[in-house]
Amino acid sequence: MTETPPLTPAEFAHRYRIPILLVILVGVFMAVLDNNIVAIALPTITSDFNVPLGQSQWIATAYIITIIATVLIFGTLSPVLGKARLYICGMALFVASSAACGLAHTLPLLVLSRIVQGIGAAMLMSISMAIIMQVFPLHERGKALGYVTATVGLGLIIGPALGGVLVEALGWPYVFFVNVPIGIVMLIPAVRYLKLEETGSKIGKLDSPGIALFIALMAGVALFVNELANPPVNMTSLSAYAVFTLAALAAFVLRERSARNPLMDLSLFSDRRFVLPSASLVLYFVATFILIIILPFYFEGVMGWKPLQVGLVAFVMPVAMIVSAPVFGRTYDKRPSKNYPAIGVLGMGGGFFLCGYGFATQSVLVIVIALILAGLFRSIFQGPNTIEIMGSLPAEKAGIASSLLVILQDLGILLGISAGSILLVLQLNALGYTGAVLDAGAGMLPPIFANAMYAGGLCCVVAAMVTYKR
Question: Which residues, by range, are in coiled-coil regions (predicted)?
Fold first, then answer.
């Protein structure tokens, strides 16, 4: 009797690509969830630790800054460490640090635990897309990435609502403890099915100066936009942050050009196939988070709604994205087109302009329709645009490309949050108002929110122009 030869790693990964996808989706979900679930717990944490809000905000910002600063490092190391090993270690670190966050009894310990949690999230996110691109054949990648898009939307939906329930029912530590059982359960299939064909590539000496300069650059960007978004702006501090950021950028570029084994291959940014969809992705996230940051202020400040009512409206766009993403993913697989990203982000811009009109006229119906349209067109944009970015680079650079996707996404989020705040505050200051946004009154606020949405719509139009293929 002839024995069946064992499956090769590539054959094994292809046969079990669905369980592998499930493992990846859970990791993405946890990382996205922790990007926004903490926001709802901040007031309670601030009160419990008896610290100013300016200090407690580092609980949120330390996480995202750490991801931006380290995700490229893990993408660079993935060919050496192995994508499967890196992902499993990342999930284990994320689970352990989540438990440490919940057990932290001082603010410094909590921030430190969040930094470690951000490192675990960066390990997960740095090679998630690369793993999907590796295990799924070309004709199934659109659908697979559509599920990733839907998972991101699910994380955005559940985060605030789940955070509120956990804080009210069990206390703020449970916004972190919730990750522990999920992560432990998913480690079992991760170890069982993540047996990938690894290239076994080697890199020379790690670019330690490049790593230090990149971390400094990201810290400078975060400090600069944070200062700009919190008026009254201290011009001395703002100028110092700007000089520091530009100096770090110049030093990083010079270092990477001369390094034998650079952290970041700057030649990527000479390839239009990579640069244009990447720029479009940043603008897309800037526009998205302008909306996300101002929507609650509009409904509470203008319409007088309660947070629960606002949360229901905030569900509309992510739900539309979740429902439509797999459908458009299958459409892309059957009828691929390089202009799906341009169509998607342009349609999203149309939804944003319509939302601005709804804000100005105080029409809830128009706003809801606009959010549905924006969610549908987000699905058309995000999956195909990700494929364009990942497909523009050779297979051996998949880990780097996956890491850069995370950096671009989080940079867009950071800039979008800051832009939303700046747009509101500058307009109010121009009208002579310097108080809290919610106290400005329904008579003053509608056109201000409308203008902010028009700015988001313009970001989408520019993104469509950038990514359009003639």
Answer: none
